[in-house]
Amino acid sequence: MRRAFWRMACAALALMGGATAADACDLALVEGPQTVRIEYNPFAVAPTPGALDVAFENRGETDCDLRLSFTDEAGIEVTSAVLGEVGVQFRPRESSGVQAADVQKGVFQYLLTAGAKGVAQLDAVVVQEAVADAGEYGVNLRLLVRNIDGIELLPPIPMRLALQSTPRAQLNLAGAAGAFGTGSSVEVVDFGEAVTGATRRIFVQVRANAPSVLSIRSEHGGVMHRLEKAENATVVPYTVQLDGQNVDLSGLWATSIDPPRTLAGVALPMDFVLGVITGQMGGNYEDVLTIDISPS
Protein backbone atom coordinates (compact mmCIF):
# COMPACT_ATOMS: atom_id res chain seq x y z
CA MET A 1 0.00 0.00 0.00
CA ARG A 2 2.77 2.45 0.79
CA ARG A 3 4.47 1.74 -2.53
CA ALA A 4 1.25 2.34 -4.52
CA PHE A 5 0.59 5.62 -2.68
CA TRP A 6 4.09 6.89 -3.49
CA ARG A 7 3.66 6.22 -7.22
CA MET A 8 0.33 8.08 -7.27
CA ALA A 9 1.89 11.10 -5.55
CA CYS A 10 4.70 11.26 -8.11
CA ALA A 11 2.21 11.07 -10.95
CA ALA A 12 0.20 13.90 -9.47
CA LEU A 13 3.28 16.12 -9.13
CA ALA A 14 4.29 15.42 -12.70
CA LEU A 15 0.80 16.37 -13.91
CA MET A 16 0.86 19.65 -11.96
CA GLY A 17 4.29 20.59 -13.38
CA GLY A 18 3.14 19.96 -16.94
CA ALA A 19 0.14 22.26 -16.53
CA THR A 20 2.34 25.13 -15.32
CA ALA A 21 4.67 24.85 -18.30
CA ALA A 22 1.76 24.85 -20.76
CA ASP A 23 0.34 28.03 -19.27
CA ALA A 24 3.61 30.00 -19.36
CA CYS A 25 4.45 32.77 -21.83
CA ASP A 26 6.04 31.08 -24.83
CA LEU A 27 7.63 33.86 -26.87
CA ALA A 28 9.15 33.50 -30.33
CA LEU A 29 10.98 36.06 -32.46
CA VAL A 30 9.32 36.21 -35.89
CA GLU A 31 11.40 38.98 -37.42
CA GLY A 32 14.06 41.13 -35.83
CA PRO A 33 16.00 44.21 -36.92
CA GLN A 34 19.41 44.07 -38.54
CA THR A 35 20.14 47.78 -38.99
CA VAL A 36 18.19 50.79 -37.76
CA ARG A 37 19.22 53.65 -40.02
CA ILE A 38 18.73 57.38 -39.47
CA GLU A 39 19.01 59.55 -42.58
CA TYR A 40 20.25 62.66 -40.82
CA ASN A 41 19.83 66.17 -42.14
CA PRO A 42 21.13 68.51 -39.43
CA PHE A 43 19.46 71.49 -41.08
CA ALA A 44 15.95 70.00 -41.26
CA VAL A 45 13.29 71.37 -38.92
CA ALA A 46 12.53 67.84 -37.68
CA PRO A 47 15.09 65.14 -38.54
CA THR A 48 13.63 61.85 -39.79
CA PRO A 49 13.79 59.05 -37.16
CA GLY A 50 15.02 55.53 -37.78
CA ALA A 51 12.42 52.76 -37.50
CA LEU A 52 12.87 49.74 -35.22
CA ASP A 53 10.21 47.06 -35.78
CA VAL A 54 10.46 43.73 -33.96
CA ALA A 55 7.85 41.03 -34.69
CA PHE A 56 6.98 38.54 -31.93
CA GLU A 57 4.61 35.61 -31.51
CA ASN A 58 3.19 34.45 -28.17
CA ARG A 59 2.69 30.71 -28.57
CA GLY A 60 1.70 30.23 -24.95
CA GLU A 61 -1.66 30.35 -23.18
CA THR A 62 -0.91 33.38 -21.02
CA ASP A 63 -0.09 36.97 -21.88
CA CYS A 64 3.54 37.99 -22.36
CA ASP A 65 4.26 41.19 -20.47
CA LEU A 66 7.54 42.15 -22.11
CA ARG A 67 10.31 44.51 -21.03
CA LEU A 68 12.56 45.70 -23.87
CA SER A 69 15.94 47.37 -23.30
CA PHE A 70 19.34 47.77 -24.96
CA THR A 71 22.94 46.93 -24.14
CA ASP A 72 26.21 47.61 -25.88
CA GLU A 73 28.46 44.82 -27.14
CA ALA A 74 30.01 44.50 -23.68
CA GLY A 75 26.59 43.80 -22.17
CA ILE A 76 26.29 47.16 -20.39
CA GLU A 77 22.77 48.57 -20.52
CA VAL A 78 22.51 51.86 -22.41
CA THR A 79 19.73 54.43 -22.65
CA SER A 80 21.21 56.44 -25.55
CA ALA A 81 24.00 56.47 -28.09
CA VAL A 82 26.24 59.12 -29.62
CA LEU A 83 26.96 58.85 -33.34
CA GLY A 84 29.22 61.50 -34.86
CA GLU A 85 28.52 63.81 -31.89
CA VAL A 86 24.78 63.38 -32.49
CA GLY A 87 22.81 62.06 -29.50
CA VAL A 88 20.22 59.36 -30.26
CA GLN A 89 17.56 57.73 -28.09
CA PHE A 90 14.83 55.16 -28.67
CA ARG A 91 11.23 56.23 -28.11
CA PRO A 92 7.92 54.34 -28.49
CA ARG A 93 6.20 55.00 -31.79
CA GLU A 94 2.87 56.72 -31.32
CA SER A 95 -0.07 54.25 -31.10
CA SER A 96 2.32 51.29 -31.37
CA GLY A 97 1.36 49.64 -28.10
CA VAL A 98 4.85 50.13 -26.71
CA GLN A 99 5.17 52.31 -23.62
CA ALA A 100 8.12 53.73 -21.75
CA ALA A 101 8.47 52.16 -18.30
CA ASP A 102 7.50 54.50 -15.48
CA VAL A 103 10.52 53.83 -13.29
CA GLN A 104 13.30 52.34 -15.42
CA LYS A 105 14.83 54.74 -17.94
CA GLY A 106 15.47 53.16 -21.32
CA VAL A 107 13.09 50.24 -20.66
CA PHE A 108 9.93 49.77 -22.72
CA GLN A 109 6.80 47.74 -21.94
CA TYR A 110 4.94 45.71 -24.53
CA LEU A 111 2.00 43.39 -23.84
CA LEU A 112 1.40 40.47 -26.21
CA THR A 113 -1.74 38.50 -25.47
CA ALA A 114 -1.90 34.70 -25.48
CA GLY A 115 -1.68 33.19 -28.96
CA ALA A 116 -1.19 36.57 -30.61
CA LYS A 117 1.39 38.00 -33.00
CA GLY A 118 2.51 41.59 -32.70
CA VAL A 119 5.12 44.11 -33.74
CA ALA A 120 6.87 46.22 -31.12
CA GLN A 121 7.66 49.56 -32.76
CA LEU A 122 10.25 52.07 -31.59
CA ASP A 123 11.89 55.06 -33.26
CA ALA A 124 15.52 56.09 -32.99
CA VAL A 125 15.33 59.88 -32.68
CA VAL A 126 17.95 62.60 -32.53
CA VAL A 127 17.84 64.29 -29.13
CA GLN A 128 21.10 66.25 -29.26
CA GLU A 129 21.34 68.36 -32.38
CA ALA A 130 24.78 68.66 -33.90
CA VAL A 131 26.30 69.08 -37.34
CA ALA A 132 28.29 65.91 -37.88
CA ASP A 133 30.75 65.64 -40.73
CA ALA A 134 29.26 63.95 -43.75
CA GLY A 135 29.62 60.18 -43.53
CA GLU A 136 28.12 57.12 -41.83
CA TYR A 137 28.41 56.43 -38.12
CA GLY A 138 27.30 53.27 -36.37
CA VAL A 139 27.26 51.30 -33.14
CA ASN A 140 26.39 47.66 -32.45
CA LEU A 141 23.72 47.06 -29.82
CA ARG A 142 21.73 44.14 -28.42
CA LEU A 143 18.02 44.16 -27.73
CA LEU A 144 17.07 42.41 -24.50
CA VAL A 145 13.61 40.87 -24.17
CA ARG A 146 12.65 40.03 -20.59
CA ASN A 147 9.52 39.50 -18.55
CA ILE A 148 8.33 41.59 -15.64
CA ASP A 149 10.54 39.56 -13.28
CA GLY A 150 13.67 40.31 -15.31
CA ILE A 151 13.97 36.82 -16.78
CA GLU A 152 15.23 36.77 -20.38
CA LEU A 153 12.63 35.27 -22.71
CA LEU A 154 14.88 35.26 -25.79
CA PRO A 155 18.62 35.37 -26.42
CA PRO A 156 19.85 38.96 -26.88
CA ILE A 157 19.00 40.18 -30.38
CA PRO A 158 21.96 41.78 -32.20
CA MET A 159 21.27 44.96 -34.14
CA ARG A 160 23.14 47.95 -35.53
CA LEU A 161 22.20 51.59 -35.08
CA ALA A 162 23.50 53.73 -37.94
CA LEU A 163 23.37 57.43 -38.73
CA GLN A 164 23.91 58.53 -42.33
CA SER A 165 24.91 62.17 -42.69
CA THR A 166 24.59 63.06 -46.37
CA PRO A 167 26.81 65.94 -47.61
CA ARG A 168 24.76 69.14 -47.42
CA ALA A 169 25.39 72.86 -47.78
CA GLN A 170 23.04 75.83 -47.46
CA LEU A 171 23.36 79.50 -48.32
CA ASN A 172 21.44 82.58 -47.23
CA LEU A 173 21.91 86.29 -48.00
CA ALA A 174 21.44 88.76 -45.17
CA GLY A 175 21.80 92.47 -44.61
CA ALA A 176 23.69 91.98 -41.37
CA ALA A 177 26.10 89.48 -39.88
CA GLY A 178 24.62 86.92 -37.51
CA ALA A 179 23.45 83.37 -37.11
CA PHE A 180 22.19 81.60 -40.21
CA GLY A 181 18.81 82.91 -41.31
CA THR A 182 18.72 85.95 -39.01
CA GLY A 183 18.52 89.53 -40.23
CA SER A 184 16.75 90.84 -43.29
CA SER A 185 16.84 88.80 -46.47
CA VAL A 186 18.67 90.46 -49.38
CA GLU A 187 17.41 90.21 -52.94
CA VAL A 188 18.38 93.66 -54.24
CA VAL A 189 21.52 95.66 -53.56
CA ASP A 190 20.41 99.22 -54.32
CA PHE A 191 23.02 101.94 -54.83
CA GLY A 192 20.42 104.66 -55.27
CA GLU A 193 22.02 107.47 -57.27
CA ALA A 194 25.19 106.21 -58.95
CA VAL A 195 28.36 107.78 -57.55
CA THR A 196 31.92 106.70 -58.29
CA GLY A 197 33.24 104.47 -55.50
CA ALA A 198 29.87 104.01 -53.75
CA THR A 199 29.88 100.84 -51.63
CA ARG A 200 27.31 98.44 -50.26
CA ARG A 201 27.81 95.39 -48.03
CA ILE A 202 25.76 92.27 -47.48
CA PHE A 203 26.62 88.95 -45.83
CA VAL A 204 26.68 85.51 -47.43
CA GLN A 205 25.70 83.10 -44.67
CA VAL A 206 26.89 79.55 -45.20
CA ARG A 207 26.51 76.32 -43.25
CA ALA A 208 27.55 72.84 -44.31
CA ASN A 209 28.57 69.45 -43.00
CA ALA A 210 31.34 69.00 -45.55
CA PRO A 211 33.93 71.10 -47.40
CA SER A 212 32.05 72.96 -50.11
CA VAL A 213 32.43 75.14 -53.20
CA LEU A 214 30.80 78.56 -53.38
CA SER A 215 30.36 79.99 -56.88
CA ILE A 216 29.29 83.37 -58.26
CA ARG A 217 28.24 84.21 -61.82
CA SER A 218 27.38 87.63 -63.22
CA GLU A 219 24.73 87.80 -65.93
CA HIS A 220 26.48 90.72 -67.66
CA GLY A 221 30.09 89.95 -66.78
CA GLY A 222 30.56 92.51 -64.02
CA VAL A 223 28.69 95.51 -65.40
CA MET A 224 25.14 96.77 -64.95
CA HIS A 225 23.08 97.21 -68.12
CA ARG A 226 20.57 99.99 -68.67
CA LEU A 227 17.04 98.64 -68.25
CA GLU A 228 15.54 101.18 -70.67
CA LYS A 229 16.53 100.10 -74.16
CA ALA A 230 18.44 102.62 -76.24
CA GLU A 231 21.02 102.69 -79.05
CA ASN A 232 24.59 102.84 -77.81
CA ALA A 233 23.36 102.35 -74.21
CA THR A 234 26.04 102.79 -71.60
CA VAL A 235 26.89 100.45 -68.73
CA VAL A 236 27.86 100.92 -65.08
CA PRO A 237 30.91 98.91 -63.94
CA TYR A 238 31.28 97.55 -60.44
CA THR A 239 33.49 95.16 -58.49
CA VAL A 240 32.82 92.56 -55.78
CA GLN A 241 34.87 91.23 -52.90
CA LEU A 242 33.86 88.17 -50.87
CA ASP A 243 35.52 87.92 -47.47
CA GLY A 244 38.41 90.04 -48.78
CA GLN A 245 38.83 88.06 -52.04
CA ASN A 246 38.40 89.82 -55.37
CA VAL A 247 35.65 88.11 -57.36
CA ASP A 248 36.30 87.78 -61.10
CA LEU A 249 32.91 88.46 -62.64
CA SER A 250 34.03 87.90 -66.24
CA GLY A 251 33.11 84.23 -65.90
CA LEU A 252 32.12 81.65 -63.31
CA TRP A 253 34.09 82.34 -60.14
CA ALA A 254 34.44 79.75 -57.40
CA THR A 255 36.15 79.34 -54.06
CA SER A 256 36.48 76.53 -51.55
CA ILE A 257 34.89 77.00 -48.15
CA ASP A 258 34.77 74.81 -45.06
CA PRO A 259 32.42 76.45 -42.52
CA PRO A 260 32.38 75.40 -38.86
CA ARG A 261 30.13 72.43 -38.08
CA THR A 262 27.46 74.46 -36.38
CA LEU A 263 23.86 75.37 -37.14
CA ALA A 264 24.88 79.05 -37.22
CA GLY A 265 27.56 78.46 -39.85
CA VAL A 266 29.62 81.47 -40.92
CA ALA A 267 28.76 84.92 -42.31
CA LEU A 268 31.07 86.15 -45.08
CA PRO A 269 31.06 89.89 -45.90
CA MET A 270 30.34 90.64 -49.56
CA ASP A 271 31.25 94.16 -50.69
CA PHE A 272 30.03 95.89 -53.86
CA VAL A 273 31.87 98.95 -55.19
CA LEU A 274 30.71 101.10 -58.13
CA GLY A 275 33.28 101.89 -60.79
CA VAL A 276 33.81 105.19 -62.54
CA ILE A 277 30.56 107.07 -63.16
CA THR A 278 31.07 109.62 -65.91
CA GLY A 279 28.86 110.40 -68.87
CA GLN A 280 26.52 107.39 -68.56
CA MET A 281 22.98 107.80 -69.83
CA GLY A 282 20.39 108.52 -67.20
CA GLY A 283 18.21 105.57 -66.27
CA ASN A 284 18.08 102.40 -64.18
CA TYR A 285 20.92 99.88 -64.39
CA GLU A 286 20.97 96.26 -63.28
CA ASP A 287 23.02 93.11 -63.17
CA VAL A 288 22.00 89.73 -61.74
CA LEU A 289 24.39 87.63 -59.65
CA THR A 290 23.80 83.94 -59.14
CA ILE A 291 25.40 82.68 -55.92
CA ASP A 292 25.44 78.95 -55.26
CA ILE A 293 27.02 76.47 -52.88
CA SER A 294 27.42 72.71 -53.07
CA PRO A 295 29.41 70.09 -51.16
CA SER A 296 32.69 69.36 -52.91
Can you describe what's shown?
There is one protein chain. The chain is mainly beta. The chain has 1 helix and 22 strands. The longest helix is centred in the first third of the chain and has 22 residues, at 2-23. The protein starts with a helix and ends with a strand. Residues 1-22 have low confidence and may be disordered.
Task: Based on the model shown, name its key terms.
rod-shaped; mainly beta; 7% helix; 7-stranded mixed β-sheet; 296 residues; disordered N terminus; single chain; 22 strands; 1 helix; 7-stranded antiparallel β-sheet
Brief write-up:
By secondary structure, the chain is mostly beta strands.
What's the story with the biggest beta sheet? 7 strands, mixed
Determine the structural class based on helices, strands and strand pairing.
Answer: mainly beta
How would you spell out the order of helices and strands?
HEEEEEEEEEEEEEEEEEEEEEE
Percent of residues in beta strands: over 45%
Task: Return the average pLDDT rounded to an integer.
Answer: 89
